[in-house]
Amino acid sequence: MGFDLSEFIKRNRSLIIEQWAYRLHTEVGEQYSQRPLEELVGTVTEAFDANAHVLLHNDFSHINRFINKITKMRLESGFLLSDVQKAFELYRTIVIPLLAEETDVKDFHHGISKINHCLAHTIHRFSDHFQNMHEKEIMEYAQRLEGEVKDRTTQLRESELQYKTLVEEINDGYFVIQNEVIVFANKAYCRMHGYSLGEVIGQKFYRFIGPEDQKRVIEIYTDSLKMKRVHPIFEYNRLTKDGHRFPTEIMAKVTRYKNQLSNIGICRDITKRVEMEQRVREAERMAYIGQITTSLSHEIRNPLSVVKMNLQILNKNPQLQGNDQRRVAISTKEVVRLERILTELLDFAKPLQFEFKPCYINKILFSCVELLEMKFKEKEVSTFFSLAPEMPKMMADEEKLEQTFINILLNTIEACQRKGEIVVISRYTIDNGRSRVEVMIEDDGTGISKQHMSDIFKPFFTTKSNGTGLGLANVKRIIEAHNGLITAKNRDPHGASFHISFPIGRGHV
């Protein structure tokens, strides 16, 4: 009997509503935590039933009515757009694990597709509605001010002060541009970019946009001035004073400010939303991989163990001589290799568990090279160290870092020619008050081809005939879990270099 989505929704209704309301109250934001739990249960129940109409009957009328209602409620209470979007996303976070437990791969993908379709409609419609109402409130207020200026000139100063107070108190960045120059910005805008008000006013607006997005945003700005119309909401990377880039959403409108044609805009940080979307996609991908690998483990590991055991018994048979004995040994070796590949798949599919404690990076590096001493000798590869003598302790999982460095070293050994050289470097740097520990592992091998450079850290990508493509993917996962960064590049005239950077102190794990 096939999977029944209607029965699934009916059976899990109470559980999903209960978890949804509880996580909404405890995880999303301060404004949600201040609302009575009974109220959240009521709104979540309405949202759940509206979603059910979409999933079961492709009927969007209920969810559209709910969006109209919740938008007005949350806007009047001063909720952040990103928090309400996160509240909708919780439905997917809760339902997908339940769906995975009760479905096969086909029904699981079908269910996820329906859920994604439902939430895409909900979040896009809600965001548009919320933004339109938000913009309408601001524009209506601006229009009222213009009327008051004409009819009540004696109260001009008071009206201006009220307007500035409103703009200063909103959570989103608010700014005014004239001839590409920022002539007004509120505190939120300055705070988002890491500058003081004096450092913002009078600057070209594209100074605060990431280089990769400057051309596109300038074109949008120019087009809006020519057409004198509102441009749709668009996203870009804003550039902060310390050089960091963060995803940002912006809505701009052409109007008159101090009797001059101007662009007024509202920008909103969407870092959390983008990170959540990435985490959801990663969770879905890992859930799928986990399901496949678990099945593979059950179906393959047991027969492999039987084959391996019988080969080992055969190998002990004294009547087995010459080529026959060699064939059994080769077969045993290949079975061991298959077991290793299966173990790598399972390790990649399951979540990483860490135990952070103070450790010395130089000690870990030296230990890894010692463990691989026989590998270096087999290929007659020489190892050179250049380790910073006064390296501070860092919070890390020592075992996981050993796994990381050994994996990189094994790759460099394979890349080296016989009698090649590998250099292991560590250093401690302080830049703009930020401390970092850096590790470089370099070889003099053939290097990495340009077409493969962008793929080497992707899961299942490999150029080896007997590789799984999970080694460097796991390396990247471990380093990023330490809030670090890994990059690879080719050396001149030949060879490759892996550069790893970990933050120390503030911003560290």
Structural write-up:
The chain has 509 residues and is α+β, with helices and mostly antiparallel strands. Helices cover 59% and strands 17% of the residues. It contains 17 helices and twelve strands. It has a five-stranded antiparallel sheet, sandwiched between helices. It has a five-stranded mixed sheet with strand order 7-9-10-12-11, covered by helices on one side. A two-stranded antiparallel ribbon has the order 6-8. A hairpin with a 2-residue loop joins β1 and β2. α1 (5-28) runs antiparallel to α3 and α5 (81-102) packs parallel to α11.
What is the share of helical residues?
Answer: 55-70%
Largest β sheet strand count, sense and barrel closure: 5 strands, antiparallel
Tell me the count of domains: 4
**CATH first level of the largest domain:** Alpha Beta
* Terminal Cα span: 48 Å
CATH superfamily of the largest domain: Histidine kinase-like ATPase, C-terminal domain
Number of helices: 17
Number of strands: 12
Named CATH architecture of the largest domain: 2-Layer Sandwich
Instruction: Give the CATH topology of the largest domain.
Output: Heat Shock Protein 90
How much of the sequence is in beta strands? Answer: 15-25%
Structural class, judged by helices and strands? alpha+beta
What would you call the shape? globular
* Rounded radius of gyration (Å): 30 Å
Q: Please state the average pLDDT score.
A: 81
Strand-and-helix sequence, N→C? HHHHHHHEEHHHEEEHHEHHEEHEEHHEE
Poorly predicted segments:
none
Give the neighbour order of strands across the main sheet: 2-1-5-4-3
